[in-house]
Amino acid sequence: EAYTIAAGLSFGMIMLGKGTSTSSPADTALLSRLRVLLHGEGPQDGSGKQEFDINLTSPAAALSLGLMYLKTGRQDVADVMTIPDTVAALNLIQPNFLLIRTIARNLIMWDNIKPTQRWLVDQIPKPIMDAMEKREPFMVVDDAIELAYYHITSGAIFALALKYAGTANQEAYGIITQFFDFFHKLSASSSEYFDFSL
Questions:
Q1: Engineered SS bond to 107: which of 66, 158, 178, 193, CB 3.0-4.6 Å?
Q2: 25-39 vs 54-68: helix axis angle to the nearest 10?
Q3: How far apart are CA 17 and CA 49, in angstroms?
Protein backbone atom coordinates (compact mmCIF):
# COMPACT_ATOMS: atom_id res chain seq x y z
CA GLU A 1 0.00 0.00 0.00
CA ALA A 2 2.81 2.41 0.87
CA TYR A 3 4.55 1.63 -2.42
CA THR A 4 1.45 2.31 -4.52
CA ILE A 5 0.65 5.58 -2.74
CA ALA A 6 4.29 6.66 -3.13
CA ALA A 7 4.16 5.75 -6.83
CA GLY A 8 0.90 7.66 -7.28
CA LEU A 9 2.29 10.75 -5.58
CA SER A 10 5.53 10.50 -7.57
CA PHE A 11 3.69 10.25 -10.86
CA GLY A 12 1.39 13.09 -9.85
CA MET A 13 4.30 15.35 -8.90
CA ILE A 14 6.16 14.59 -12.15
CA MET A 15 3.01 15.36 -14.14
CA LEU A 16 1.88 18.19 -11.84
CA GLY A 17 -0.59 20.38 -13.68
CA LYS A 18 0.47 18.98 -17.06
CA GLY A 19 -2.93 17.57 -17.90
CA THR A 20 -4.14 19.88 -20.63
CA SER A 21 -7.52 21.45 -21.16
CA THR A 22 -7.84 19.37 -24.34
CA SER A 23 -7.49 15.62 -24.81
CA SER A 24 -4.24 14.87 -26.62
CA PRO A 25 -3.48 11.23 -27.50
CA ALA A 26 -0.93 11.07 -24.66
CA ASP A 27 -3.42 12.48 -22.15
CA THR A 28 -6.09 10.08 -23.35
CA ALA A 29 -3.80 7.06 -22.92
CA LEU A 30 -2.74 8.10 -19.40
CA LEU A 31 -6.30 8.93 -18.41
CA SER A 32 -7.51 5.57 -19.71
CA ARG A 33 -4.87 3.67 -17.74
CA LEU A 34 -5.53 5.62 -14.54
CA ARG A 35 -9.27 5.03 -14.93
CA VAL A 36 -8.60 1.28 -15.10
CA LEU A 37 -6.48 1.45 -11.92
CA LEU A 38 -9.12 3.60 -10.22
CA HIS A 39 -12.16 1.43 -10.93
CA GLY A 40 -10.64 -1.98 -11.62
CA GLU A 41 -12.05 -2.31 -15.12
CA GLY A 42 -8.85 -3.77 -16.46
CA PRO A 43 -7.41 -6.87 -18.12
CA GLN A 44 -7.95 -10.19 -16.41
CA ASP A 45 -5.75 -13.24 -16.23
CA GLY A 46 -6.83 -16.72 -17.36
CA SER A 47 -8.80 -17.31 -14.15
CA GLY A 48 -10.92 -14.18 -14.66
CA LYS A 49 -9.14 -12.24 -11.93
CA GLN A 50 -7.72 -8.75 -12.31
CA GLU A 51 -3.98 -8.38 -12.69
CA PHE A 52 -3.89 -5.89 -9.82
CA ASP A 53 -5.56 -5.20 -6.48
CA ILE A 54 -7.95 -2.26 -6.81
CA ASN A 55 -7.72 -1.67 -3.05
CA LEU A 56 -4.08 -0.76 -3.61
CA THR A 57 -4.31 1.04 -6.94
CA SER A 58 -7.51 3.10 -6.56
CA PRO A 59 -6.26 5.69 -4.02
CA ALA A 60 -2.95 6.09 -5.86
CA ALA A 61 -4.71 6.56 -9.22
CA ALA A 62 -7.02 9.20 -7.70
CA LEU A 63 -4.07 11.15 -6.31
CA SER A 64 -2.27 10.89 -9.65
CA LEU A 65 -5.27 12.28 -11.53
CA GLY A 66 -5.81 15.07 -9.03
CA LEU A 67 -2.21 16.24 -9.27
CA MET A 68 -1.85 15.73 -13.03
CA TYR A 69 -4.95 17.80 -13.75
CA LEU A 70 -4.39 20.29 -10.93
CA LYS A 71 -6.35 23.52 -11.51
CA THR A 72 -7.30 22.55 -15.07
CA GLY A 73 -11.04 22.67 -14.41
CA ARG A 74 -11.55 19.48 -16.42
CA GLN A 75 -14.99 18.41 -15.22
CA ASP A 76 -14.82 15.27 -17.39
CA VAL A 77 -11.68 14.14 -15.57
CA ALA A 78 -13.11 15.03 -12.16
CA ASP A 79 -16.20 12.97 -13.02
CA VAL A 80 -13.99 9.90 -13.54
CA MET A 81 -13.67 9.85 -9.75
CA THR A 82 -17.31 9.14 -9.13
CA ILE A 83 -18.78 9.35 -5.65
CA PRO A 84 -21.37 6.55 -5.19
CA ASP A 85 -24.73 7.63 -3.78
CA THR A 86 -26.53 4.38 -2.97
CA VAL A 87 -26.03 2.00 -0.07
CA ALA A 88 -25.30 -0.88 -2.44
CA ALA A 89 -22.63 1.08 -4.29
CA LEU A 90 -21.15 2.50 -1.08
CA ASN A 91 -20.76 -0.99 0.33
CA LEU A 92 -18.45 -1.81 -2.59
CA ILE A 93 -15.95 0.95 -1.86
CA GLN A 94 -13.78 1.68 1.16
CA PRO A 95 -14.89 4.93 2.87
CA ASN A 96 -11.35 6.35 2.87
CA PHE A 97 -11.38 6.14 -0.94
CA LEU A 98 -14.21 8.68 -0.89
CA LEU A 99 -12.05 11.10 1.08
CA ILE A 100 -9.19 10.78 -1.41
CA ARG A 101 -11.50 11.10 -4.41
CA THR A 102 -13.10 14.21 -2.96
CA ILE A 103 -9.70 15.84 -2.45
CA ALA A 104 -8.54 14.82 -5.95
CA ARG A 105 -11.74 16.11 -7.60
CA ASN A 106 -11.29 19.45 -5.92
CA LEU A 107 -7.62 19.69 -6.90
CA ILE A 108 -8.84 19.50 -10.49
CA MET A 109 -11.78 21.87 -9.97
CA TRP A 110 -9.63 24.24 -7.86
CA ASP A 111 -11.30 27.45 -9.00
CA ASN A 112 -14.71 26.12 -7.92
CA ILE A 113 -13.69 25.75 -4.25
CA LYS A 114 -15.56 28.39 -2.26
CA PRO A 115 -15.59 29.06 1.50
CA THR A 116 -19.35 28.65 1.68
CA GLN A 117 -21.79 26.17 3.15
CA ARG A 118 -23.44 25.82 -0.27
CA TRP A 119 -20.17 24.66 -1.86
CA LEU A 120 -19.68 22.14 0.95
CA VAL A 121 -23.21 20.76 0.58
CA ASP A 122 -22.68 20.41 -3.17
CA GLN A 123 -19.73 18.06 -2.54
CA ILE A 124 -22.02 15.49 -0.93
CA PRO A 125 -24.34 13.44 -3.17
CA LYS A 126 -27.94 14.45 -2.53
CA PRO A 127 -29.19 11.01 -1.37
CA ILE A 128 -26.46 10.91 1.29
CA MET A 129 -27.12 14.48 2.40
CA ASP A 130 -30.89 13.89 2.54
CA ALA A 131 -30.45 10.75 4.67
CA MET A 132 -28.24 12.58 7.16
CA GLU A 133 -30.47 15.67 7.38
CA LYS A 134 -33.58 13.58 7.99
CA ARG A 135 -31.98 11.54 10.73
CA GLU A 136 -33.94 11.74 13.97
CA PRO A 137 -32.28 11.69 17.42
CA PHE A 138 -30.87 8.23 18.12
CA MET A 139 -32.16 6.95 14.79
CA VAL A 140 -29.85 4.44 13.16
CA VAL A 141 -28.63 5.44 9.72
CA ASP A 142 -26.93 2.87 7.52
CA ASP A 143 -23.22 2.71 8.32
CA ALA A 144 -22.33 3.08 4.64
CA ILE A 145 -24.25 6.38 4.47
CA GLU A 146 -22.74 7.77 7.67
CA LEU A 147 -19.18 6.78 6.82
CA ALA A 148 -19.58 8.22 3.31
CA TYR A 149 -20.85 11.50 4.76
CA TYR A 150 -17.95 11.78 7.22
CA HIS A 151 -15.27 10.93 4.65
CA ILE A 152 -16.63 13.12 1.84
CA THR A 153 -17.05 16.04 4.24
CA SER A 154 -13.51 15.54 5.55
CA GLY A 155 -12.12 15.49 2.02
CA ALA A 156 -13.97 18.68 1.11
CA ILE A 157 -12.77 20.45 4.25
CA PHE A 158 -9.19 19.36 3.52
CA ALA A 159 -9.44 20.77 -0.02
CA LEU A 160 -10.89 24.01 1.36
CA ALA A 161 -8.02 24.26 3.85
CA LEU A 162 -5.47 23.67 1.09
CA LYS A 163 -6.86 26.44 -1.08
CA TYR A 164 -7.15 29.01 1.68
CA ALA A 165 -4.01 28.09 3.65
CA GLY A 166 -2.22 31.27 4.74
CA THR A 167 -4.94 33.62 3.45
CA ALA A 168 -6.59 34.42 6.81
CA ASN A 169 -9.95 34.03 5.04
CA GLN A 170 -12.55 34.29 7.79
CA GLU A 171 -15.26 32.34 5.93
CA ALA A 172 -12.92 29.39 5.34
CA TYR A 173 -11.72 29.56 8.94
CA GLY A 174 -15.30 29.51 10.20
CA ILE A 175 -16.24 26.41 8.21
CA ILE A 176 -13.07 24.55 9.14
CA THR A 177 -13.45 25.27 12.86
CA GLN A 178 -17.14 24.37 12.72
CA PHE A 179 -16.33 20.92 11.40
CA PHE A 180 -13.34 20.51 13.65
CA ASP A 181 -15.73 20.96 16.58
CA PHE A 182 -18.28 18.64 14.94
CA PHE A 183 -15.81 15.78 14.49
CA HIS A 184 -14.29 16.36 17.93
CA LYS A 185 -17.73 16.02 19.54
CA LEU A 186 -18.55 13.05 17.34
CA SER A 187 -15.42 11.20 18.42
CA ALA A 188 -16.12 12.03 22.06
CA SER A 189 -19.65 10.68 22.06
CA SER A 190 -20.90 8.58 19.17
CA SER A 191 -24.34 8.23 20.78
CA GLU A 192 -25.03 11.96 20.80
CA TYR A 193 -27.32 13.39 18.13
CA PHE A 194 -25.89 16.06 15.88
CA ASP A 195 -27.59 18.46 13.51
CA PHE A 196 -26.41 17.55 10.01
CA SER A 197 -28.10 20.47 8.30
CA LEU A 198 -25.53 22.85 6.86
A1: 66
A2: 150
A3: 34
Asked whether the beta carbons of 186 and 194 are under 8 A apart, the reply is yes
Please report the pLDDT score of residue 191 as a whole number: 46
pTM: 0.85
Please write the tens of the pLDDT for every residue from 67-116.
Answer: 999 999 999 999 999 888 888 888 888 999 999 999 999 999 999 999 99
Residues 85/140, Cβ–Cβ less than 8 Å: no
Contacts of 85 (CB under 8 A, 6+ apart): 125, 126, 127, 128
8 Å CB contact between 37 and 61: yes
Helix (H, G, I), strand (E, B) or coil at 7: helix
Spatial CB neighbours of 163, under 8 Å, sequence gap ≥ 6: 106, 110, 113, 172
For helices 54-68 and 2-14, angle between their N-to-C axes, nearest 10 degrees: 20
Half-sphere exposure of 26 (CA within 13 A, CB side): 6
How many helices, marked H, and strands, marked E, lie in the chain?
Answer: 10, 0
Among 97, 95, 115, 101, which Cα is nearest to 162's? 115
- Fill in the DSSP letter of residue 111: G
CA distance 141 to 113: 29
